[in-house]
Write a structure and sequence with these properties.
CATH superfamily of the largest domain in chain A: Fe-S cluster assembly (FSCA)
Largest interface: A-B, 23 and 31 residues
Helix content of chain B: 55-70%
Radius of gyration of chain B: 18 Å
Shape of chain B: globular
Distance between the termini of chain B: 33 Å
Largest sheet of chain A: 4 strands, mixed
Distance between the termini of chain A: 39 Å
CATH architecture of chain B: Up-down Bundle
Radius of gyration of chain A: 18 Å
CATH class of the largest domain in chain A: Alpha Beta
CATH topology of chain B: Ferritin
CATH superfamily of chain B: Ferritin, core subunit, four-helix bundle
Structural class of chain B: mainly alpha
Number of domains of chain A: 2
Number of helices of chain A: 5
Number of strands of chain A: 9
Strand content of chain A: 15-25%
Helix content of chain A: 25-40%
Shape of chain A: elongated
Bound molecules: zinc ion
CATH topology of the largest domain in chain A: GMP Synthetase, Chain A, domain 3
CATH architecture of the largest domain in chain A: 2-Layer Sandwich
CATH class of chain B: Mainly Alpha
Oligomer: heterodimer
Number of domains of chain B: 1
Chain lengths: 172, 251
């Protein structure tokens, strides 16, 4: 690994930015620890301002209790990587949407046992309930138990083929 | 001490969300079924999150160093300016769902309109809140329909809840000098223009629920100016206990 960036002014800013971005992208959602905040779409920007790293993150839901911890974890990760005094900012606009979740993010979510958001949020608003595939057996014969699950971003579903209940990451 | 209309307006939005969010949190651990326990907890969390965003902004507008905690925990009932609807007791499950339907059937089109505010911060908070309120409308509407069009007993209770709470819906659409100044400036939406959207939503749900929509009689008012029912004092006693007993406590 590179030496701690003690003297940022003398170092290549592009290289620093790449490294800062890698560090920020490696931070995971504390409630879904297989999903990085980059894959979740919560990491909005990483930049170098006056020699210090600035990171923008955005909450999934207004009341998401993980936001404070995510901000703290990004800050700690950057400090550990040698970036002094990083600034973590919470931005509200534009509002987060599940459309920002990466394809890779959807894959790891399904492998973890959580059905990823299906289709575009805008499409869902137009056409209502979509088909949700069971993350265990991949059957489409599933039903919603409750629109609200263990966290604000998830709904409770059940698979009628394999009888397993599962979480579904809602489209918003 | 003069306060700006924008401060007062933002504080009203924050207080509405916090007080209703707190009311919903009172169900946690005692809802009729587990799924509803989770649902009500989630709805409450959305509202408390919205409240926090509005309080942070209100503190910035005021510029006297009050943060979201100072505004939530260190003001007395007379300084709270939420509408009376949100402080009404949870009652039975029908009353809670009816209150939620009335509030969110207003708040959803309201936040939709507030997204277009000339004030970028209010617009940004609204853009998040509108997505959340869509779920609140759907969830409470489903329950009001299920209860109204359910058994004789559930129908009776749902109708009772509607009759009891309707008198608090008028205040949602009031516009005083504070609000009119901001409507003029393109910052606040004109709530009179949201009335049709609210009425249509309520009519649709009530038709399907086989409930009678209460007539437009006397409407309660005053919460937005700090004149509250006795309920708010009890809410704040619980909500603010920790900060009153251990000032500045953090976790
Ligand atoms: Zn299955």
């Amino acid at each position: 690994m590179a030496a701690p960036a003690t003297d940022i002014a003398q170092t290549d800013v592009t290289g620093l930015l790449t490294r800062a971005r890698e560090v920020a992208e490696s931070v995971v959602d504390p409630e879904i620890p297989v999903l990085s905040i980059a894959d979740l779409g919560v990491l909005r920007d990483v930049r170098i301002v006056d020699g210090a790293v600035e990171v923008d993150i955005t909450p999934t839901y207004s009341g998401c209790p993980a936001m404070n911890l995510i901000a703290l974890n990004v800050e700690m990760a950057l400090i550990h990587a040698g970036f002094g005094m990083p600034r973590i900012k919470t931005v509200l606009s534009p509002a987060w949407t599940t459309d920002w979740m990466t394809e890779h993010g959807k894959k790891v979510l399904a492998a973890y046992g959580i059905a990823p958001p299906q289709g575009k949020a805008s499409r869902r608003a137009l056409f209502g309930e979509e088909y949700v595939t069971c993350p265990q057996c991949h059957s489409r014969d599933t039903q919603r138990i409750s629109e609200f699950g263990s966290t604000a971003c998830k709904a409770l579903w059940r698979c009628k083929a394999c009888a397993e209940p599962f979480d579904y990451f809602k489209c918003i | 001490m003069t306060e700006t209309p924008l401060f007062r307006y933002t504080l009203r939005l924050a207080d509405n969300a916090l007080v209703l969010g707190h009311r919903l949190s009172e169900w946690v651990g005692r809802a009729p079924v587990l799924e509803e326990d989770l649902a009500l907890g989630n709805l409450g969390l959305d509202l408390i999150g919205q409240a926090r965003a509005f309080y942070v902004y209100a503190g910035e507008i005021e510029g006297r160093g009050r943060d979201e905690d100072a505004l939530a925990y260190l003001r007395d009932a007379g300084e709270y300016c939420n509408v009376l609807l949100v402080e009404q007791p949870n009652g039975d499950f029908a009353a809670t769902m009816m209150r939620q339907l009335f509030y969110s059937a207003f708040a959803h089109p309201f936040f939709e309109a507030l997204q277009k505010s000339r004030d970028a911060t209010l617009a940004a908070i609204a853009a998040k809140a509108v997505k959340e309120m869509a779920y609140h409308v759907r969830h409470s509407a489903e329950w009001v329909i299920r209860l109204g069009d359910g058994t004789d007993e559930s129908h009776r209770r749902a109708q009772q809840a509607a009759d009891d709470l309707w008198t608090y819906t008028g205040e949602l659409f009031e516009a005083d000098a504070v609000e009119r100044a901001l409507i003029e400036a393109g910052i606040a939406p004109d709530t009179a223009a949201l009335r049709a959207s609210f009425d249509n939503a309520i009519n649709d749900v009530f038709d399907e629920a086989t409930l009678q929509r209460p007539g437009s009689g006397f409407m309660q008012s005053g919460g937005r100016d700090g004149r509250h029912s006795e309920h708010l004092g009890f809410i704040l006693t619980e909500l603010q206990f920790l900060q009153r007993v251990y000032p500045g406590a953090k976790w």
